[in-house]
Amino acid sequence: MNLNPDYITICYGPNDKQCLCGQIDKELHYFNTSFVGMTREFFLHSKLYILLENILTDFKNRLKTKKGIYPKKLDVKRVSVEDFDKNIREMVKISKASNVGFIIINHNWLNDNHSKYCFTPYNETMMSIANDESVDIINTYDIFSKVYNKLNSVESHRESIKNRFPDSFRDNENYLRLFYSDYVHPTRFAHYLIAEAISKKIALK
Fold this sequence. Notes:
Blueprint lengths: L6 E5 L22 H10 L3 H17 L17 H17 L3 E6 L14 H13 L2 E4 H14 L1 H10 L23 H16 L2
Helix pairs in contact: 3-4
């Protein structure tokens, strides 16, 4: 708030729902201490660190069941849905107290096959908060779906986007890839659509 913004936007990403083999974010605060932080930074790129990280990753993968799910004791999200809800509501509270506009960007990503969008309890939480706190929300699913459907039906529209955002238009067959650089991070074209949606929200105020 020290920068005195007119609006704050907060976008949901899948990092919060990731599993760190039993660890949660709020218990990792000790990495911010000067000594531990400097020590970790020193070893971060060492061959030993990389080796141990690969061993741990392999170990974590072996712990998964055939369905790709960790045993219950280890299937702990980095941020629980409850903490996620509490954190976002606190941000909204601080924003309102400072008379700063607040816009939630409810972002979806693709499934493992890159063929359809995922929707999680975290997305549902974002929608509930927007409704309860009377703040604006932008659902990227709605924006991307509308453009996606038009791409499939209007060739001139498809060619126009391809010429304007050639770096994003990398797959002529799978238009979903137009919106994602991998399976979660928006492409330049997707960022343009999100920015356009934010602009329209603000213009209505």
